[in-house]
Amino acid sequence: MTPxxxxxxxxxxxxxxxxxxxLYFKLLRPxxxxxxxxxxxxxxxxxxxxxxxxxxxxxxxxGLLRRPRTLAGIxxxxxxxxxxxxxxxxxxxxxxxxxxxxxxxxxxxxxxxxGVLVLRERLRPAQWWALGVGALAVAVLTVDxxxxxxxxxxxxxxxxxxxxxxxxxxxPAAEGLFVESAVLSLPAxxxxxWLAATGDAAFGHVSAGHTALxxxxxxxxxxxxxxxxxxxxxxxxxxxxMLQYVAPILQLGFGVLIFHxxxxxxxLAGFALVWLALIVFTADAVRQAxxxxxxxxxxxxxxxAAVAGSH
Length: 311
What we know:
The chain is mainly alpha-helical. It has 14 helices and no strands.
């Protein structure tokens, strides 16, 4: 299998797994969102630690301890991903899967906005147009919900901020996930200990299957991230960008068709505006990628070859 096809396979499997997360998190009830989050953190640390030991790749920890700025960045990334995970679990288990799907639909637009606000990047006209349509969509959905779709906005800004911090840190997927989860593991273990002491823990008190599903949270957190990293190393950014819509499409379908969440006309109109903005955004990204590729190919042609080829 070629690296490109392998990249598509890794990316598709990663986004399919993320797309099926609503079905999985529904199975973890009656555990509350905070207990689910704590187990997700603790078992992620355990799973990735075993993976790193198997790969004999634990020496990176010594280097990190001598880089305080990197450690501070990891702390920020850990906080942002914890907010994202908790919000998503809460949204799914409070029957708001459609709103969580909205958060991941508008995530590409928010990442672009963060690029402007934080990195001072300049946007092309089509990108500004897409952002404007996205803002209009949020306004329409605010009227429909009678409030800001705050779950969607928390999800997208927390993940956008997490992506920005991760880009600056430049850590490999497994090592980064291990350190982020390790930062969160002490408060997570403390919370689980408190639940056990008060008799409020669901872990071990519902069924053997429920306990196994909570333990599985570690692997189900790490595997899609590792697959995504493998895809990112093999695919053009535009291809990766188009694959990212697989997960929210599945989540939206589960929310409407399986969990029977309401989709009134005004809400559908808001989603339609989001999809219009994404079409413009994706088409512009594809056009720019083709333009950049032509420029690279032209620059790679030696001047003599260019002259010879012109006859």
